[in-house]
Structures are given as structure tokens and as C-alpha cells.
Design goal:
seven-stranded mixed beta sheet; single chain; 31 strands; eight-stranded mixed beta sheet; 20% strand
């Protein structure tokens, strides 16, 4: 009997826009593109797996050549280029010298137009990296395999710190600067790092924020959690001045400037690492409350980011490139630091929010620096389109490639990007990937592939993807139904595993569709990213959203359970449930239902503010609930499980479906009334209040605590987990 057609993985996925036509790639790009047409990569046939991937290793310089291309001894912990050794910093910097010593690696652009940008050449960047590596090694005893937590804002110190760790063979763990002390401490405890790199202050949304205060709170929480943070190395935004009102803790806190001055000019030989040693940790949210430490390696990761920078971003040495993301997310690691440096390009690095308060500033900067490849997220584009629909106007920057990442992009936003920003002359590249995948997986090749607005496109050459139904059968291309995306072939960029949790790695990413856990055949281990998708007749994939309890707000990945457990720490909160609120700017916003127990404040505004504050304190302003509903009871199954699906339907204005099987169906009517009466506040108007892009492609004004959050009226000044504004 044929199986009955399964329902789409989530009712949210029913919200689909109609299929768009294909847009041809700009012909002029083919003249100098790395990949002028698909034939150029004809060797990358999935049938020939893994052989074609051998060529990607040649994009790197190796200390010792690899011996085994694809090691499948311990499925699904695939290992690439086994036997080889290399150093990531050598690949990013030393290799470009002396030929390109004077080429600019980064233009750092401060938030305030009144401040002067600072630039670093590849030669100067290497000098700074070696100097810091000397400090880390000789003053703090950091060596190969040690974990170093870096909680730095978007300054030049951040890539310098990452590369200094890489040079020594240490594993860096960058925590997004907008994350709270709690989130930072949690990551320090999990990774077992004993050194924290932090900053005195940074600017965001027009304010100067005290970041050092967070380091103090982090230290206290690490100690409380049984960890040992031996030292805190503090970088100052202004090289000659410590600007935080929070005092330095003698013996524990060390200012970076004098230590660096002492080691200036040091030469630190790069430490060769095995291809499958860890290069960095990047924590990411999942279905449980505990963030997952995705461990990326050397050979495979670097080869994949180098390859995708050629194929997808078409970066050439000396190109000017600007990715508006924060380095604190995977987009920044792969496509601001490692990929662009491996490619020898000149990148812009922007502090704060480049379009706040002036939405024309991104185009001004892009014009001033001659940006050829521009990279951002749908959330940033939605905000820019709303604030200044005219875009860059006739005096357009020399854009060839316009990249988007992090969330589904609506076709009308896609077209604005293509026509108004790019003048119809640039390729728009919608890239789908994840923290776990290291680099792009789905994307059109800018000179070679037709684009389809709203669809991320086909898998990259050499890869095979499928959209599976509930039983694990592939949906035929062109099927009207949605299913679950899987990547069938392994690829070099996939993480090595989850830090300290092999079992969770296998279960989370491979458990769903693996039928034989003993199989050594990679074909039995499709990678499951937890995204719902549709596949069109051409094999282009349209991503519909997460099918787990992850909310994608402004391209930030937020775990529902993390937010719920933060809310449950408020003493009077008895139950908490998080659902996504469809949001015109952010894609999704966080909706939080709480059922109170004894002790709830009489004033509902104060009660809601208390819950929101707990979430911000625990995670950071990016997770701030857009709306908190205090409700008498939650819809529950007879076994007592909260039916988030019903709540999500009410919030999205959909029919909650058949609720007769609930233990308390009558509560649904009451809840519908509460939700209707307390509509989420509309996003606030321009400037610091506008939500910006996050994990995907750019900064989020609301993240920094300087005016963010849609329900600003409920915020207590200062102490809500974000660095306090000091000016
Ligand atoms: C999740 C991964 C990839 C770097 C930034 C986010 C969503 C990512 C797209 C896209 C639709 C996308 C997916 C994915 N996502 N890119 N082009 N179209 N959705 O990395 O924080 O690991 O989040 O972001 O849901 O699973 P991340």
C-alpha cells in the first residue's frame, strides 16, 4: 500500500509564496569569473565522490601533504585530507607576502563618521598577529589545543586575536559581543578555556557601551560554575586609553597595550596542525537549552571556505569586499576572516550599525571604497528598503555580486536588491548554509547559473541534496509538497563534531534518516540540517524555515528552550512557551507565553518587563521577547505537554486546527482573546530601534542594547544584561 502523503513538517511551511521565474546571470561576469559556466566545474560530479574534492586541497599551502582524501573509519565523523599538516594563519597571511605585503587586508570603519577609519595591510596584520601570539604564548602560556575565549566587538583586534590563536595552534571560541555574561560564561565552562580576551568599550547605535563590566560578570559566573578563568586580557578601543568605568582587577585583568608593546616585533613561527585538529569552536542553538559547540577543523574547513569564496563569491586577489555580518557569527568567521584572507582580498570591517542613523551610508561606503562584492542578510535589506527605498541611486557602487544569507528572502526584497541596489547588472546570490556546514551548501554560481528569486538554488558542485518526506523518501523535483532538506554527500567543510558530545552530534545531525548505525558507507548517513524545504523541477531548493524549536530572528538562531529556561528563572513564572511571531523586518520575532504561579506582580507591564529582562540577562538583547503574554494556562495534551503549535497558530493568525483532543480545549478561546487584545507592538521607526540583520549578514541595532528591542518602554535602564551605555 503506498504511504499516504505526509503533511508538511510544520504548519508554518504552508505560508509559501508562488514560484518565481528564472533571471539570467549577468553575462559580463563570465569574462573574469573563476567559474564562467558550470562546465568549468564538470569534474565535480557527485557520482565521483570523493575524488573531485582532492583538487580543493590545492587551494591551501600545506606543511606536509595529506595522504588519505576521505577517511570514513568512524562514521559519521568523516575526516578529510588525513595525514596532512598546515597552519591556518600561514594560509591567511604569510602566503600573500611578500607579493602583497602592502595590500590592505582590512579597512576598519568606526561607527561615527567623525572618527577616522584605520587600515591594516597584509604585512601589518601579520605583524600584529605575531605580536599578540607572542603575548598569548609567553605571557599566558597558550599552546596548541588550548581553548581561548574571545568576547570582542567588531574591531581589528578580533581577527588579529583569532589568527594569533590559529598561529599557535590554539582553538579560538569567539562569543558574539552582544551576548550576555551568562552566555559567555556558559561557553567558557563548556570549552574549558582559561583565558578570556575582552574589550573596555565599544560603540553601537550611537552609544559607548561598557563591555568590561560583562567580563567581570562572566568571571564570577565561571567561578560559580566550577570553572577557572585564570586571566582576562583587555583590549582598549582607543590604544592609549582605558575607557571603561569598570576598574581593572589587579592580578587577573591585564591590559593588552603594554604587553603588546613589550613583544612588538616578535617573530612567532606558525605551529603546523593536523588537518583534522580543531581550529575553532562556534556555539550554536539547538533544540535543548544547552548551546552546541561546533568544532571546525583545519584542512577541510579551510579548503571549503577557499573553494566557496571562488565559486560563490568569485573573490579575486585585490578585490574590495564587504560583508556586513559580525565576526562573532559563523558568517564572519568564514566570510570576513578566513575565506577573504585566504583569497587575498581587501575587506571592510564596520563597527556598530553602518546604516544607523543614515540608511544611505552603506551605499556611500561601498562607493567610497569601490566594493565589488557586497554581502548582507534579508533583515538588513528589508530595513534598508524601508528606510531608503531609492537605494544607492544612479551613482551606484561597482557591485558585481550581491550576496544574501541567513534567512529566506522574499521575492520582492530579492528584486529590490537586484534592481535597485544592483541596477540589474549584478548577480544576486542567495546562500544557504549553517554554522555546522562551515561554508555554503546551496547557492547559484554568479556568472554561471540563472537565479530564482526566493530560492537558494542548487547544491554546490560535487554535492547532492534531497528533500525527504516523513518516511525518508525523496520528493521528486517539482513536487508540490514540502519536506526535510538533507545533504546526501559529505563535504570538506562539515564540522568535526560537537565539543565533548559525540553522541549528540550523531543524534542531532544524522539520527533522523540513518537506518543502520553500523554502516560505514557514507550513503547511509545523510546530513540533516533541520530545515524544511521544497525542491523545484530544476533542482533549486527553497528553504522554508526550521523544523526544530529554533527561531530565526534577524538571521540570529535562537533556541526556544534557552529562552524558556531563562523565563522559568523568574520565581513567579510557572510555565513558559516560546513561539515565533511573523515579523515584517526580522522574519520572525520572539513571542513568549508565561503562565504565572504565586507572587506575580500586580502590574502586568512590570511583570512582562521582568520576564523580558531575565531573557536578555541570560542570553543577550538579540533574544529579547518582542511580546510577552501572561496567560492563565497553556494548551496541553492529555499527557501534559504544552502545545506550542496551537500557540504559534494563534500568534500567526492561523486556525489552530482541531483542539478537541487537548486536555483543556476551552483555554484556546481565552488565549485567542488575549492574543487579539495584545497585538505585538509594530516595529519602531528608523535608526537605532530598527532591527538589523544578525547571524546571517549584518549587525542588529537592537542587539547592542543601545535602544534596541521593540518594546523599549518595558526596559529597565541599564542593567538588563547588555553593556551599560556610558555616553
Ligand atoms: C540556519 C542556520 C549561514 C550563516 C548564517 C546563519 C537559516 C541560513 C539561509 C538562506 C533561508 C537560511 C536556516 C539554517 N538560513 N541561510 N539563504 N535561506 N534560510 O547560520 O546561525 O547556523 O543558522 O539559518 O534555517 O538552518 P546559523
Amino acid at each position: 500500500m503506498p504511504p499516504s502523503p505526509p503533511p508538511p513538517p510544520s504548519p508554518d511551511l504552508a505560508a509559501l509564496w508562488p514560484e518565481e521565474g528564472l533571471v539570467p546571470p549577468p553575462r559580463r561576469l563570465a569574462e573574469r569569473a573563476h567559474v564562467p559556466d558550470r562546465a568549468a566545474l564538470a569534474a565535480f560530479r557527485a557520482e565521483d565522490f570523493p575524488r573531485p574534492f582532492a583538487a580543493l586541497a590545492d587551494l591551501l599551502v600545506w606543511t606536509t601533504p595529506w595522504r588519505t582524501l576521505f577517511d570514513d573509519t568512524r562514521p559519521p565523523f568523516w575526516r578529510w585530507y588525513e595525514g596532512g599538516t598546515l597552519n591556518a594563519c600561514t594560509n591567511a597571511l604569510d602566503r600573500h607576502l611578500p607579493a602583497a605585503r602592502d595590500r590592505i587586508a582590512y579597512h576598519w570603519i568606526p561607527e561615527a563618521e567623525s572618527e577616522s577609519p584605520r587600515s591594516l595591510t597584509y604585512g601589518e596584520l601579520l605583524e600584529r598577529v605575531e605580536t599578540l601570539a607572542a603575548v598569548l604564548r609567553d605571557d599566558f602560556g597558550i599552546g596548541p589545543g588550548d581553548r581561548v575565549t574571545i568576547h570582542l566587538p567588531m574591531s581589528l583586534d578580533l581577527p588579529v586575536a583569532m589568527l594569533a590563536c590559529a598561529r599557535l595552534g590554539a582553538i579560538h571560541s569567539v562569543v558574539f559581543s552582544g551576548f550576555s555574561a551568562r552566555a559567555c560564561a556558559e561557553r567558557i565552562l563548556d570549552s574549558g578555556s582559561r583565558l578570556l580576551l575582552t574589550a573596555d568599550v565599544y560603540r553601537r547605535g550611537g552609544a559607548v557601551l561598557d563591555h568590561k563590566a560583562k567580563a567581570d560578570a562572566t568571571h564570577a559566573l565561571v567561578t560559580e560554575g566550577g570553572g577557572r578563568l585564570e586571566a582576562v586580557l583587555v583590549f582598549t578601543r582607543d590604544p592609549d586609553r582605558y575607557a571603561s568605568p569598570t576598574p581593572l582587577h589587579p592580578g587577573r585583568d591585564r591590559l593588552a597595550a603594554p604587553l603588546l608593546a613589550h613583544r612588538r616585533g616578535a617573530r612567532i613561527p606558525p605551529v603546523p596542525r593536523a588537518s583534522n585538529d580543531g581550529l575553532f569552536l562556534m556555539y550554536s542553538s539547538g533544540t535543548t537549552g544547552k548551546p552546541k559547540g561546533c568544532l571546525h577543523g583545519h584542512g577541510g574547513y579551510l579548503a571549503w571556505v577557499a573553494a566557496t569564496c571562488r565559486w560563490v563569491l568569485d573573490l579575486h586577489p585585490g578585490d574590495v569586499y564587504w560583508c556586513m555580518a559580525d565576526i562573532g557569527w559563523i558568517t564572519g568567521h568564514s566570510y570576513i576572516v578566513y575565506g577573504p584572507l585566504l583569497s587575498g582580498v581587501t575587506s571592510l570591517l564596520t563597527e556598530g550599525v553602518p546604516y544607523d542613523p543614515d540608511p544611505g551610508r552603506p551605499w556611500c561606503l561601498a562607493r567610497r571604497y569601490g566594493v565589488r562584492v557586497f554581502h548582507t542578510s534579508p533583515t538588513a535589506l528589508r530595513a534598508l528598503r524601508r528606510l531608503a527605498p531609492e537605494g544607492p541611486g544612479a551613482d551606484r557602487p561597482p557591485f558585481d555580486i550581491l550576496v544574501t544569507v541567513g534567512e529566506p528572502i522574499e521575492p520582492h526584497v530579492w528584486r529590490w536588491y537586484h534592481e535597485t541596489v544592483g541596477g540589474g547588472r549584478a548577480a544576486v546570490v542567495d546562500t544557504w548554509w549553517q554554522t555546522e556546514t562551515g561554508g555554503h551548501i546551496l547557492a547559484t554560481l554568479p556568472a554561471a547559473d540563472p537565479m530564482r528569486p526566493g530560492s537558494a538554488g542548487p547544491p554546490l558542485p560535487g554535492l547532492e541534496v534531497a528533500v525527504l518526506d516523513e518516511e525518508g523518501h525523496p520528493l521528486p523535483p517539482g513536487a508540490e509538497r514540502a519536506g526535510t532538506l538533507v545533504v546526501r554527500t559529505p563535504w570538506p567543510g562539515l564540522m568535526l563534531g560537537l565539543w565533548g558530545d559525540d553522541e549528540r552530534y550523531v543524534r542531532t545531525y544524522f539520527g533522523r534518516f540513518n537506518r543502520d548505525p553500523r554502516s560505514r558507507d557514507w550513503r547511509d548517513w545523510p546530513y540533516c540540517p533541520s530545515d524544511g524545504a521544497r525542491i523545484d523541477a530544476r533542482g533549486y531548493v527553497r528553504i522554508l524555515g526550521r523544523i526544530d524549536d529554533v527561531i530565526n530572528s534577524s538571521g540570529h538562531r535562537l533556541g526556544s528552550k534557552e529562552i524558556e529556561s531563562a523565563a522559568l528563572e523568574v520565581p513567579w513564572v510557572a510555565e513558559a512557551a516560546v513561539v515565533p511571531i511573523p515579523d515584517e523586518l526580522r522574519g520572525q520575532a520572539v513571542g513568549l507565553f508565561v503562565a504565572p504561579g504565586p507572587g506575580v506582580p500586580d502590574d502586568p507591564t512590570a511583570a512582562r518587563a521582568e520576564v523580558a529582562r531575565a531573557v536578555v540577562e541570560r542570553i543577550g538583547p538579540i533574544a529579547r521577547p518582542h511580546q510577552v503574554w501572561i496567560v492563565p494556562d497553556m494548551p496541553k495534551t492529555r499527557s501534559g505537554k504544552i502545545m506550542r503549535r496551537v500557540l504559534a497558530a494563534l500568534v500567526a493568525g492561523r486556525d489552530p486546527g482541531d483542539v478537541a483532543t487537548l486536555a483543556n480545549p476551552e483555554v484556546v478561546v481565552a488565549l485567542a482573546g488575549i492574543v487579539a487584545a495584545e497585538k505585538p507592538a509594530p516595529p519602531r521607526e528608523p535608526g537605532a530601534q530598527t532591527p538589523g540583520p544578525g547571524g546571517g549578514g549584518g549587525p542588529t541595532p537592537g542587539d547592542g542594547g543601545a535602544g534596541g528591542g521593540a518594546r523599549g518602554g518595558e526596559r529597565a535602564a541599564g542593567g538588563d544584561g547588555e553593556g551599560q551605555a556610558i555616553s
